[in-house]
Write a sequence for this structure.
């Protein structure tokens, strides 16, 4: 999510990132906006869908759930079919002592080469197939970082790749469209980077009958295909996590892919109607807008598809990209979906008062504990 991009760029220009960036963002959270009258008028005349309701029985929800997922797949556009397993080239393997590291690439079949990293526990600690985590990086206007987020303290208070590997997980993450090694690899070529490249990629996908968001999720699912196929991995114990754009990727992937057993999303528990009403659309980049979605339902319909699988949301109460008024509307229908499975404890939404768009050490520990508990051997 492109929140406070100018602040992030200014901090990066000094050569100081990580804890300083997080500190600045934490100390200057944006207060939730009042409802914007113009937004009210636009919403009132947009003929959007009524509030989404979860049916009262599990049987009825099962049918509705299929309909919602099919609608999401259609709205994302006519995406190229994924191969059964991507053809992966491993370009580097290193033993780094407390973990092992690999770099790989694959052709996504849609004109792009995708680069990614894998982190594994030391060979001496391998005891049968392990739980695995798909790590989704954030946006933050940091187009040059992408998957390298897993190697540094930047969006997250630890280097997440090695940290999760040390905890006994296999961890995999890729560069999303326009990020990391894919910055400057869009249809505009190397001269077009950053937000300009992202805008061009979004325009191209719309003309091709699909969305940039759909293509980002398609790459993530190809990465998940590869992760699940690795011999070190137990495909029954797959999790997903991320902050900001990575959080939104997390809850969309939980909605679309039943292979994922648990997820943790930090920030971006966003209901779009409240985001519009409070003037917050500017807090999010063009990459994740799905044409026509609000004519069918808001994001509670997407998040509810995760039920009954464990899902933890952690959000700052002063994060302008995730208005608390929207979170209050999201939680009841999601809880109702979990209640149908007698799995109320598998859904948890934590709102941290007076916190902005930030990932704190306490949030990280909850993330790690949640994944360890819910990806444990059956």
């Amino acid at each position: 999510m492109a929140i406070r991009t100018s602040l992030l760029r200014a901090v990066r220009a000094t050569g100081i990132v990580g804890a300083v960036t997080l500190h600045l963002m934490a100390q200057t959270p944006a207060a939730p906006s009042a409802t914007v009258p113009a937004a009210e008028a636009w919403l009132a005349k947009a003929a959007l869908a009524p509030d989404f309701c979860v049916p009262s029985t599990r049987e009825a929800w099962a049918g509705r759930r299929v309909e919602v997922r099919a609608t999401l797949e259609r709205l994302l556009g006519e995406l190229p079919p994924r191969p059964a397993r991507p053809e992966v080239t491993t370009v580097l393997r290193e033993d780094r002592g407390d973990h092992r590291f690999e770099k790989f690439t694959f052709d996504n079949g849609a004109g792009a080469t995708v680069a990614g990293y894998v982190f594994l526990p030391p060979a001496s600690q391998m005891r049968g197939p392990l739980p695995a985590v798909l790590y989704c990086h954030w946006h933050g206007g940091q187009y040059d970082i992408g998957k390298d987020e897993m190697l540094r303290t930047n969006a997250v208070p630890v280097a997440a790749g090695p940290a999760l590997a040390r905890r006994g997980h296999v961890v995999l993450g890729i560069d999303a469209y326009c990020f990391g090694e894919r910055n400057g690899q869009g249809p505009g070529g190397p001269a077009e980077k950053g937000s300009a490249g992202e805008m061009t990629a979004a325009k191209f996908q719309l003309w091709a009958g699909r969305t940039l968001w759909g293509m980002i999720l398609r790459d993530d699912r190809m990465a998940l295909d590869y992760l699940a196929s690795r011999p070190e991995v137990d495909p029954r114990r797959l999790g997903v996590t991320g902050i900001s754009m990575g959080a939104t990727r997390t809850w969309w992937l939980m909605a679309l892919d039943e292979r994922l057993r648990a997820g943790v999303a930090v920030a971006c528990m966003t209901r779009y109607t409240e985001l519009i009403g409070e003037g917050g659309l500017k807090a999010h980049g063009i990459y994740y807008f799905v044409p026509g979605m609000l004519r069918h339902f808001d994001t509670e319909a997407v998040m509810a598809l995760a039920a009954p699988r464990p899902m933890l949301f952690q959000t700052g109460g002063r994060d302008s990209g995730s208005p608390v008024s929207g979170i209050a509307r999201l939680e009841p229908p999601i809880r109702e979906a979990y209640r149908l499975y007698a799995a109320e404890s598998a859904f948890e939404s934590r709102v941290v008062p007076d916190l902005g768009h930030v990932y704190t050490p306490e949030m990280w520990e909850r993330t790690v504990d949640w994944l360890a508990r819910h990806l444990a051997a059956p």
Q: What stands out?
A: The chain is about 35% helix and 15% strand. The beta strands are 88-95, 100-107, 113-120, 130-136, 170-174, 233-243, 260-266, 311-316, 347-352. Residues 58-75 form the longest helix (18 residues). The chain has one domain: 5-374.
